């Protein structure tokens, strides 16, 4: 029996319970804030490709081109290079004064984003500053190469796969339904499918045999043979586009035009094609 006004041991009044709850909540909030602050101070920096891309952009805007170049280079080494990475790296290298590698990066960006207007403008702008006048190639083969360059390899592959799937689906429908409209559909898709498959094969061959190179040395002496003692035939400068024919040791046999061909140190010329 409890006397009137007496509280049982262990039982709190509503007001006392409210104060205790608020105090516990405040302590929990303070502990969580302290833990978050310690975690923020001790956690390693975010090294994800997205974070590095963002940090590289910040460094570029701050005109810290060396840091931006390093961060974009990390993305390339990690296999995370996209068209945007190559494009931004080209911008960084140009601002840092490396004309040859800027052209190289822009050309590699075109493999991913061939119709990007900013990329096209920057590439033309940088190429106009080269010391060597690039010879113009003409002919049907060059026209087809330039036309197919308007689409990336992945885009052409996707288009070929879609047309291929539609064509065989139409054949299957024609086999089962045997209607006039299914025959017309299959015939129309066949007209698209055959040249589409051929163009896809040509595009794949162009990418596989892409032997374009870019002179990355400020000045490159092209010699009669793969030896420093051989005669210098002519000199090329940063950003010039060449065709690579083969390697011999630390030398590349390159062709600038039909009349200008010779050997140059491999370190002075880098291929546009991305070797995996």
Termini, distance in Å? 87 Å
Major sheet: arrangement of strands? 6-5-4-1-7
Low-confidence stretches: 1-23, 38-44
Q: What is the level-2 CATH architecture name of the largest domain?
A: Alpha Horseshoe
Quickly count the helices.
9
The CATH superfamily of the largest domain is identified as Tetratricopeptide repeat domain
Q: Which term fits the overall shape? A: globular
**Helix proportion range:** 55-70%
The CATH topology of the largest domain is Serine Threonine Protein Phosphatase 5, Tetratricopeptide repeat
Radius of gyration: 32 Å
Class based on secondary structure composition and strand pairing: alpha+beta
Could you please describe the fold and organization of this structure?
The structure is a single chain. This protein has helices at 14-42, 49-61, 65-77, 83-95, 99-110, 117-127, 140-148, 153-177, 180-208, and strands at 212-215, 219-223, 232-237, 241-248, 251-255, 261-265, 269-271. The chain contains nine helices and seven strands, in the order αααααααααβββββββ. It has three domains: 49-127, Serine Threonine Protein Phosphatase 5, Tetratricopeptide repeat (Alpha Horseshoe); 140-208; 212-271, Roll (SH3 type barrels). The strands form two sheets. Strands 6-5-4-1-7 form a five-stranded antiparallel β-sheet. Strands 2-3 form a two-stranded antiparallel sheet. By secondary structure, it is α+β, with helices and mostly antiparallel strands. The termini are far apart.
């Amino acid at each position: 029996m409890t006397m009137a006004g007496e509280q049982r041991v262990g039982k709190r009044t509503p007001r006392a319970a409210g104060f205790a709850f608020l105090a516990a909540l405040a302590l929990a909030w303070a502990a969580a804030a302290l833990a978050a602050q310690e975690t923020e101070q001790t956690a390693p920096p975010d090294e994800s490709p997205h974070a590095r891309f963002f940090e590289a952009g910040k460094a570029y805007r701050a005109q810290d081109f060396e840091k931006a170049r390093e961060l974009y280079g990390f993305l390339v080494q990690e296999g995370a290079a996209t068209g945007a990475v190559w494009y931004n790296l080209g911008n960084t290298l140009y601002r840092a004064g490396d004309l040859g590698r800027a052209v190289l990066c822009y050309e590699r960006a075109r493999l991913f984003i061939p119709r990007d207007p900013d990329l096209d403008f920057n590439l033309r702008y940088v190429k106009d500053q080269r010391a060597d006048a690039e010879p113009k190639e003409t002919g049907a083969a060059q026209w087809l190469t330039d036309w197919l360059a308007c689409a990336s390899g992945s885009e052409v592959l996707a288009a070929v796969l879609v047309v291929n799937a539609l064509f065989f689906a139409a054949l299957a429908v024609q086999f089962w339904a045997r209607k006039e409209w299914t025959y017309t559909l299959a015939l129309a898709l066949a007209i698209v499918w055959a040249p589409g498959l051929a163009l896809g094969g040509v595009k794949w061959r162009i990418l596989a045999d892409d032997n374009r190179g870019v002179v990355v040395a400020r000045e490159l002496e092209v010699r009669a043979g793969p030896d420093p003692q051989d005669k210098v035939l002519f000199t090329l400068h940063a950003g010039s586009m060449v065709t690579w024919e083969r390697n011999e040791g630390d030398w590349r046999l390159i062709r600038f035009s039909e009349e200008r061909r010779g050997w140059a140190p491999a370190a002075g010329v880098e291929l546009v094609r991305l070797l995996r």
